[in-house]
Amino acid sequence: MNKTILLILLITCSFRVFSQTPDCGKFREGKFRIADTRAGVVTIAERKGMYQTESSEALKAVVRFRISWHDNCSYTLRLDKVLRNENRIDFPASLEVKVRITETRDGGYTQATSSSLTNGTYNVAVTKIN
Prior knowledge:
- By secondary structure, this protein is mainly beta.
- The chain has one helix at residues 2-18; strands spanning 30-36, 41-48, 51-56, 61-71, 74-85, 96-105, 108-115, 122-128.
- The protein has an eight-stranded antiparallel beta barrel with strand order 1-2-3-4-5-6-7-8.
């Protein structure tokens, strides 16, 4: 009986050790380089307080999103304001981007991203630049 209880405890502890969530807290604020290889665009994002401002020289656009954190590693961005839009991109007022940080590393992380404009989820590498 004692061996069975001990075995159950060891199995439970090993699941907890191997299924730890990434340390996402250090990425809640700061300046980030988002390399979207699928779209071929590099975006600089500055996240502070309840806003994230994203700028892309390739798109010649700067947009501000409102952040809603769901937990330490996932959040939703909702379009707040288009600050610059030289290419006259159609940013729908209902634009929403869902982000889940799936892996962290020194100086950056990988995020799974989906949006109201695209089908499916794709992974993007993000580097903290300050």
